[in-house]
Amino acid sequence: MASSGNFMTWSSLWSCDSSYPPSSNVFSGGNCRYSSSNSNNGFGATHSFLSGKWYWEVYIVANGNKQLILGLVTPETKDVSQQLWNTVGIYGVTSGSGIGYKLIENSPGFVEIDGFDDIANGDIVQLAFDRDNYKLWVGRNNTWLESGNPAGDSNPLISGSDFAFQGGAVMPVIGQGSASTFTMVLNAGQDDTFGGEITAAGNADGNGHGVFKYAPPSGFLAPCSANLPIGTGIDPAGDDGADENPTKQFFMTEYLGNLTNRTITTENQADLILIRHTNFAQDWYIVDSTRGITNNYYTKLNTNAAEATFPQGNFTSVGSTSVGISSGTWLNSTSAYYQMWMWHCNGGTTTSDSSGDITVTRQTNDAAKFTIATWTGNGSSGSTIAHGLGVNK
């Protein structure tokens, strides 16, 4: 396995199957191996792209009835019946028909292509996607279809207005059109043996990340955390304790209850805290510094109950690197384990923002793109509120 952070895998959370989770869909190998005998279903990936050039490979273990679907969709597609068919990419064919198709989101939808007929066991499908210019190249066993050349920016299989969903995030998708058994293994750079199916080749991308069967085209990168854009003010590699380090934006701790007043050490000032008892099926409580953590106002993440107050003054203090817990049994029962997930925002300092339809009181951590906001509803459908993050998605 290669290093370079977290690599893209398939995600069972974005499904094209309205009856999900059907038992015929099986994920294994760290969610890289996908097997299914369900028809007209598919799944998205853990990564989506707002910019950049990206490369990944899929190994065909069992070709089923050859109706492989590979390509790209928008994660915002909500209509389950249309999700898979909104794919921009390629569509394999029923055995013996002798043709393959490219899928485009604009009419005519299915367009015949050369070189993708009779997809076979042991084939490796390559995908190279230029998100900045909406161009997709598809290869088979190191030959790009229709004489394409992603490194030279020539002859993309699909480009321009054939991508109707331009402007937002674009996510890789995998699926099949028939009900025969299909098994495919993804390599986004984490394993060029595809789970032991072939011999390692060791081809890294231009940044030295990942390992692939075939060399990624020049300029195209492995979908992994090491290649993702770095937000201004956040240093993901930082280990010097500076405020811009990710561990200063989100941090967690676990403690054992002892019925005594105590101080819990934190990485930074906690502005939003999610806390629960881990021994038993207790509710998930949320407090925040906009309402005042030591005011002990909480809401429950797992219910729609109204705001309430901890009855024992359970949060006693909040410091730059600490949270105080009282001796009360709610959050400090003897021999009970508790976990706290904590986010840093703006130290409780808020501002009034009326740039939306409804005025909000918010505090914002722009570097981490995190806002806590409160407002009073106006009962009007479609009203907007400002989040102060400078981005829409």
Describe the structure concisely:
2% of the residues lie in helices and 34% in strands. With 393 residues, it is an all-beta fold. It is elongated, with a radius of gyration of 25 Å.
Helix-strand layout with pairing:
Layout: E1 10-15, E2 26-28, E3 33-36, E4 41-45, E5 53-62, E6 68-73, H1 80-83, E7 88-91, E8 100-103, E9 110-113, E10 124-130, E11 135-140, E12 143-144, E13 158-159, E14 171-176, E15 182-187, E16 250-256, E17 262-265, E18 272-277, E19 285-288, E20 297-300, E21 308-309, E22 315-319, E23 322-325, H2 329-332, E24 337-343, E25 351-353, E26 360-365, E27 370-375
Antiparallel strand pairs: 1-4, 2-3, 3-15, 4-14, 5-10, 5-15, 6-7, 6-14, 7-8, 8-9, 10-11, 11-12, 11-13, 16-24, 17-23, 18-19, 18-24, 19-20, 20-21, 22-23, 25-26, 26-27
- Secondary structure tally, helices: 2
CATH topology of the largest domain: Jelly Rolls
Q: What is the rounded distance between the termini?
A: 32 Å
Shape: elongated
How many strands in all? 27
- Beta-strand residue percentage: 25-35%
Quaternary status = single chain
The average pLDDT value, as a whole number, equals 85
Count of folded domains: 2
Summarize the helix and strand pattern as letters. Answer: EEEEEEHEEEEEEEEEEEEEEEEEHEEEE
Helix content: under 10%
CATH architecture of the largest domain: Sandwich
Instruction: Supply the CATH superfamily name of the largest domain.
Output: SPRY domain
- Secondary structure class reads mainly beta
Measured on Cα atoms, how large is the radius of gyration? 25 Å
CATH class of the largest domain: Mainly Beta
Main β-sheet description: 8 strands, antiparallel
Unreliable spans are none
